[in-house]
Amino acid sequence: MITRKDLYTINEVPGRTVSEVLGYVKGSTVQTKNIGRDFMAGLKSIVGGEIVGYTDMMNEARKVATERLLKDAEELGANGVVGLRLQTSAVMGGAAEIIAYGTAVIFK
User: CA-CA distances (angstroms) from residue 68 to 12, 18, 38, 100, 102?
Assistant: First the structure.
């Protein structure tokens, strides 16, 4: 089972040797705002400050996308992922996609 400790944003990991590169893996999710978050965000835009509801939503979305990436890598037989990247994009009004991607590898 691959865990978060087997994810690396770097391409070469000190002390670990890649014996096989299995290829591109990814995980994604699309999150939408809800009326409660929108209302609170509207109030925050008046007084300023962090919109905690959105921060929490995006943190959860990154977690989901990363877990899906790990599953994708496991299905290839990997025991690690290098070059991990996270990207966000708007897919429609009020919805954003989070994608986690990297290269599945087998470490010796």
Answer: 23, 22, 27, 8, 12
